[in-house]
């Protein structure tokens, strides 16, 4: 039985040991987990988002864990890429487990500058461009909201990415799947990450206050949104010629197989990392056991096999 | 690699009611770990389909395990004898060095946070802000009361013992205002913001700090943090209220 996954990219095949990787924002910078689990067991490592400069924690409450998911509102709680490259990346198993950096940038100029800098970092496999960009620049709508702007962004980022693999991650919103996937793949994107989060709010009726986020809420993710996130993954797969990385609400190996059968090449694990820190390592073991039990020899065998009834 | 998360069970649970009429429940969790006052266990119960862990202060070590305290609003509170739990820890850093016993200052709603120091007799005075109430299970002669938080400074006087405080957000801010800059240097306060992972992974508990890029981690370096580093104007909204 084989857990390996091959993602065809413009830079050649990216072979992952298995389809499990962290989702930015729920796995620290990786090294926090080195005493918790074997980082080298992962398919890929995607640490928390990074920017050109150090950020500061949001001053609002950043989390609310509800019954079926959690709302997060981190703001610019990122370290700078320099800190990561010099102090953290050398401690990650980048030679055997590809590391991708999720990027936040204020505007297109900063984004291309950032990608250009990272394209020179040999330890990195690639970058994940968060389609929520631009961050903290309220004068400019997110690029994904305007087809022409999105295409321009993908094209310009690709032009400076050198030999790095570029993933583009869905925005924290309900989004027009076909339009966005087309813009990404037609302009040089190597893969599409089909889910990020959706907006969510919660009110504490005792204190009569919203429970987190400076504007009342934040991004909602977790098992409660899995059906929606699975739809995003499947609809992306229907449109995409590039690999789709699914995710959203995965809490067990059966969930992983759902995403693969819906067409995804690999999956990102987010909220479940907050249920127990060693979740992903256990998930990989559970996936092996489940595939063995179901007599599935490889993920290629079942990818996209789900039929409409 | 040893499993980071330990699967365990509840050996004993018991209601305790000495916090201003509020009901708490203590749980003995099977464990062979040691702890220091101010540390906590991240515990995940099996009570829900989707289980999030929460931090629970440890206040006692027994022959069979560690004893933690759960508030009524916490998931562990609903658990019962022999229920399975998962834990990791002890996490956090004790604010006491074992040389000097601290003065504990608190109010009824947040008193659970100084309970580990009380249980360990690791204090020399306990000052409670608010009206005097009947205390069950504790020598009332040991407790001093003050009506207003502004009186704390006077009560502490020239006592140079370290101070450990635990308050709701408004009182915490007033407490900080009542102390001199000099006194703040030897004072720690319970930072009650959300700790989702307990291992510095989620970055949800960080405090803003102009001198430290990216801020200050609370779940590992705290949750009792030096009072002088806390900017209540900036981070005050992060703190939880205990009714």
CATH topology of chain A: TIM Barrel
The largest sheet of chain B, given as strand count, sense and whether it forms a barrel, is: 6 strands, antiparallel, barrel
How many domains make up the 3D coordinates of chain B? Answer: 2
Helix proportion range of chain A: 25-40%
Helices of chain B, by number, come to 5
* Strand order in the sheet with the most strands of chain B: 1-2-5-4-3-6
Q: What is the N-to-C succession of helices and strands of chain A? A: EEEEEEEHEHEHEHEEEEEHEHEHH
Biggest beta sheet summary of chain A = 7 strands, parallel
Sheet with most strands: strand arrangement of chain A: 3-17-16-11-10-9-8
Structure description:
- With 309 residues, chain A is of the alpha/beta class.
- In chain A, helix 6 links the parallel strand 16 and strand 17 (266-269).
- Chain A has helices at 81-88, 108-118, 147-160, 177-186, 226-239, 253-261, 279-293, 299-302, and strands at 5-9, 12-16, 20-22, 50-51, 63-65, 70-72, 79-80, 100-103, 126-130, 165-169, 191-193, 198-201, 203-204, 209-210, 217-221, 244-247, 266-269.
- Chain A contains 8 helices and 17 strands.
- The mean pLDDT of chain A is 92.
- Chain A has a single domain, classed as TIM Barrel (Alpha-Beta Barrel).
- In chain A, the strands form 5 sheets. In chain A, strands 3-17-16-11-10-9-8 form a 7-stranded parallel β-sheet, with helices on one face. Chain A has a 4-stranded antiparallel β-sheet with strand order 5-6-15-12, with no helix packed on it.
- The two termini of chain A are 29 Å apart.
- By secondary structure, chain B is mainly beta.
- Chain B has 2 domains: 5-91, Translation factors (Elongation Factor Tu (Ef-tu), domain 3, Beta Barrel); 103-238.
- In chain B, 12% of the residues lie in helices and 31% in strands.
- Chain B has 5 helices and 12 strands.
- Chain B has helices spanning 115-119, 152-156, 169-178, 181-184, 232-235, and strands spanning 6-19, 22-30, 40-45, 54-61, 65-70, 84-91, 103-107, 125-129, 143-146, 163-166, 187-190, 224-226.
- Chain B has a 6-stranded antiparallel beta barrel.
- Chain B is globular and about 50 Å long.
- The mean pLDDT of chain B is 88.
- The interface between A and B is large, with 46 and 36 residues.
């Amino acid at each position: 039985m084989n857990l390996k996954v091959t993602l065809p990219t413009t830079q050649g095949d990216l072979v992952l040991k298995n389809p499990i990787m962290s989702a930015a924002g729920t796995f620290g910078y990786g090294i926090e987990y080195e005493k918790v689990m074997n980082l080298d067991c992962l398919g890929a490592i995607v640490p928390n988002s990074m920017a050109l400069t150090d950020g500061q924690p949001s001053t609002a409450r950043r989390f609310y864990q509800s019954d079926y998911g959690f709302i997060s509102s981190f703001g610019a709680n990122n370290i700078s890429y320099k800190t990561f490259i010099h102090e953290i990346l050398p401690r990650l198993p980048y030679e055997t487990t590809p590391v991708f950096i999720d990027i936040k940038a204020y505007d297109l100029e900063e984004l291309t500058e950032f990608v250009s800098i990272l394209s020179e970092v040999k330890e990195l496999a690639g970058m994940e461009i968060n389609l929520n960009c631009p961050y903290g620049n309220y004068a400019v709508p997110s690029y994904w909201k305007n087809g022409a702007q999105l295409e321009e962004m993908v094209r310009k980022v690709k032009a400076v990415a050198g030999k790095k693999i570029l993933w583009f991650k869905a925005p924290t919103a309900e989004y027009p799947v076909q339009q966005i996937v087309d813009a990404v793949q037609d302009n040089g994107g190597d893969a599409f990450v089909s889910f990020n989060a959706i907006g969510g709010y919660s009110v504490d009726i005792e204190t009569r206050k919203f429970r987190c986020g400076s504007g009342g809420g934040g991004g909602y993710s977790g098992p409660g949104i899995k059906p929606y996130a699975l739809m995003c993954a499947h609809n992306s797969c229907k449109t995409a010629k590039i690999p789709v990385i699914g995710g959203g609400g995965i809490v067990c190996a059966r969930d992983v197989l759902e995403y693969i059968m819906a067409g995804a090449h690999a999956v990102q694990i987010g909220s479940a990392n907050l249920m127990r820190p060693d979740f992903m390592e256990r998930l990989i073991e559970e996936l092996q056991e489940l595939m063995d039990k179901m007599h599935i020899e490889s993920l290629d065998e079942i990818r996209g096999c789900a039929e409409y009834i | 690699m040893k499993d980071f998360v330990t699967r365990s069970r509840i050996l004993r649970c018991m209601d305790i009611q000495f916090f201003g009429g509020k009901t708490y429940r203590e749980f003995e969790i099977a464990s062979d770990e040691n702890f220091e006052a101010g540390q906590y266990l991240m515990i995940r119960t099996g009570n829900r389909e989707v289980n999030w862990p929460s931090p629970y202060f440890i206040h006692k070590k027994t022959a069979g395990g560690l004893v933690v305290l759960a508030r009524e609003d916490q998931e562990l509170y609903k658990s019962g004898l022999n229920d399975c739990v998962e834990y990791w820890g002890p996490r956090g850093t004790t604010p006491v060095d074992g040389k000097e016993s601290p003065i504990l200052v608190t109010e009824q709603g947040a008193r659970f946070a100084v309970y580990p120091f009380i249980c360990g007799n690791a204090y020399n005075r306990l000052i409670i802000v608010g009206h005097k109430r009947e205390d069950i299970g504790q020598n009332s002669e040991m407790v001093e009361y003050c009506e207003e938080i502004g009186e704390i400074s006077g009560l502490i006087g020239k006592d140079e013992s370290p101070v450990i405080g635990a308050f709701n957000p408004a009182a915490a801010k007033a407490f900080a205002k009542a102390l001199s800059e000099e006194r703040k240097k030897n004072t720690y306060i319970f930072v009650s913001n959300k700790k989702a992972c307990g291992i510095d992974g989620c970055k949800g508990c960080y405090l803003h700090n102009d001198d430290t890029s990216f801020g200050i981690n609370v779940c590992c370096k705290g949750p009792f943090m030096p009072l002088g580093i806390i900017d209540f104007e900036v981070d005050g909204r992060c703190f939880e209220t205990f009714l």
